[in-house]
Structure formats: C-alpha cells, structure tokens
Amino acid sequence: MRLLISGALVAAVLALQTVLAQPPAAAPATPATPATPAATHYVLDPAKSSLDYTFVQAGAANKGRFTRFQVAYDFAPESPAASRLDVTVDINSLDTGDQERDDTLRGADLFAVAKFPQAHFAASQIDRTASGYEAVGKLTIRGVTRDARVPFSFRTATENGAAVGYMSGKTSLRRLDYGVGQGDWKATDQVGNDVIVSFALRLTAR
Amino acid sequence: MAIRNTTQRWGAIAQLLHWLIVALVITQFTLAMLFDDLPPSAHKLALLARHKSVGITILMLAALRLAWRWANPTPPLPDTLKPWERSAARFNHVLLYVLLFAVPVAGWTMSSARGFPVSWFGLFTLPDLVPKNKALYELLVTTHGILAWTLGVVAIIHMLAALKHHFVLKDDVLRRMLPLTSNKTQGSGR
User: Fold this and answer.
1) Nearest-CB residue to A60 (from B40, B43, B117)
2) Is A199 exposed, middle or buried (0-12, 13-18, 19+ CB in 10 A)?
C-alpha cells in the first residue's frame, strides 16, 4: 500500500513536471482542435495567397494554380516542433489557363476529381532548419498518402493592429508517386514526372 | 556533285535543303492528320510536340535555304518558257518560300496564343510570340490550316510542273535538282 501511494506520487510529480516543462507538447495531435495558448492559430487570407505549380509539357515549362484551398497553421515560435500545419486543396479548382487541359487533368486518368476531390497535407511537426522551417507530415493526393517534407519560410508582422504571418516555400514532387497519370499518362516524355509546387500565403492570426 | 550551285545545276546544299524540306512538309501533313481528331491524350501531346518541333525545323531550314540562295547563283528557267509561264513559275516559287515561313510562324504564334510554349524536340523552348489570347488562337487555328493547305496545293502545282518539264518538255529542270544525275545538255538554260 505504501509502495502504491509513493508510486502514484512519483507518477503525479513526473506528469506535472512534463506539463510544466513543455506545455506545447500537450497539444492534441489532430489539427482541427484548438492549439495550446503558446501556439498562435493562423487561417488563410485567400485573397492574398497563391498555390502554384510548374510542370513540363511537351518539353516546355507550363504553369498552373489552385484557386481554392484551406490552411490551418498552429505556430509556437519558441517550439516549432509543437507546431502544426494542415492544408486542404480543392483539386477541382485547378487552373492551368487552358479549359481543355484543365478538364483533362480532372479526368479519371489524372486527378480523378470525382473520386478524389481533395488533396491533403497534414504536418504534425515543424522542424527548424538553417534557412527557415520544414513541415514534416503526410501528403495525400488521389488517395495515395506518402511522407512529405515541405521547406518554407515564415515571418510574422502586425498590420493595422492585427497579427499576420507570411509563409512561402517551394517543393518538388513526382506526380506518379501519387498515381497522377494512369494509362498512357504514365509516360513522362510529354508530361514530366516532376512537378514544382510553390506557395506564398498570407495568414491571419485567430 | 558541287557543293555550291552553278548556273546549270543546283549544288549539293541546295538539293539537300530542297528534299529535306519536302520530306518534312509531308511529315507535317501526316502528323496533323494523325492528331487532328484525337481526344486529349499523352499520345496526342506527343504527336503535337513532334509536329511543332518539325515545323520549327522547317522554319530554320527555310531561312538557311533563302540565305544559301542569295549566296549562290540560281540556275535560270529554260529559254523555251513563254512570258506568262515565267511569271507563273516565279509567282509559284515566291509563294512557296513565303508559305515555308508563314505556315510555321502561324503555328508557333497559334501555340503562343493558346498559352503553350513551343519546345524544339525538348532541347530548348522558344519565346512566346504573342501573349495568351483565346480569340487570336481561334483565328490562327484557321489561318494555320488555310496556309498549310495552300502550301500543299502550291507544292503540288510545283511538282506537276517539274514532272511536265521532265516528261513532256524533256528539259533539265527536274534533273538539275536531282542528285546522282547530270544535265543532258551542258549549258541548257543559258
């Protein structure tokens, strides 16, 4: 009995220490739930944000963008490891500036939007790097989930009394890793495998 | 065979450029007919990309050819031609040269207006000639087609005329553009 009480006491002290030592670690793992007070919760300012991509078509670089996407970012400046980033992209909003190409991209052999309307990036860990940060998480496109690391830079500012954040970065991914390209679209001689995704986001603190 | 033209015969370079362009123009018509009715697919993209690369090649060869023509003597038309035939031949040749430039430039501009940069066999990307413009693109699709078919018709007239010279008039007009042959009469057309 005495052993049990002292054991419980030790456990309680340890738990208390853990909570005091690293409060952000107590944050729930799911991005939808509110962050701990130490983290600032940011949401997207869609009007001043862009999510673009560059791909090679027929030997030449072509550009496109997504016009609808959501971003939730919990940033704890003193503890990037406790920060989270969650991005959901409405694939149907893809825009390469060419109706025929956009419709083709939405089709079953490429993005298959009817079946996979969204792409999702969920990072539960933000590492600090020499040049900024790196979001470490899972990227899901066309129903295929893979580990992904997305480097980005982030700076905060106060505009008209409101706290805002600017996040930008660029990463490269291979479309075929996610099955974007079935049938003869698996060939990479006309449509390259590598796609460069770049983003410049304006976030507002909530 | 001489590299340069003489006053009797086309030289090796002029012949090579002539027949290379013939082969490439035939390739272009073949590719265009192959992809014309296809729905969007990687295969169609591949055919289109080849068509654009070959078109740019024709444009480059046409420029080379014109430069070579200026730097060389031109074997004259036979003396036997009537004045109207001389004019017709001249008009036909000028039109062929104009179209060898106009068709690829219209195609290139059309691709630019569509917003698709043109790559030459994936080796380099050509600059866009015009900004993206849907109305202009639609206009150029028609223009490119009309110019291409005009080139086809003018080329066939050119070919029929050459065959007439060879088989009916039995002169050297065709022979002097053929490798591995010689003129029947030295100094013909002088």
Assistant:
1) B117
2) buried
Can you give the pTM of this predicted structure?
A: 0.81
CB A97 to CB B41 under 8 A? Answer: no
Model confidence over A40-74: pLDDT tens digits? 999 999 999 999 999 999 989 999 999 999 999 99
Q: Do A191 and B42 touch (CB under 8 A)?
A: yes
Nearest to A142 by CA among A100, A187, A189, A107: A107
Nearest CA in chain B to A181: B42
Q: How far apart are CA A37 and CA A15, in angstroms?
A: 19
- Chain A nearest CA to B152, separation (Å): 27
B50-80 exposure pattern, b = at least 16 Cβ within 10 A, e = fewer: bbbbbbbbbbebbeebeebbeebeebebbee
The answer for residues whose C-beta is within 8 angstroms of residue B140's C-beta and 6 or more apart is B106, B107, B109, B110, B113
Measure B45 CA to nearest chain A CA, in Å.
7
Q: How far is A59 from chain B, CA to nearest CA, in Å?
A: 4
Domains and CATH numbers, chain A: 38-205 (2.40.128.110)
Give residue limits of the domains in chain B.
Answer: 12-177
**Nearest CB neighbour to A57, from listed B45, B123, B132:** B45
The residue ranges of DSSP E strands in B78-185, in sequence order, are 119-120, 124-125
The encoded tokens of residue A155 equal 């700076």
Nearest CA in chain A to B120: A59
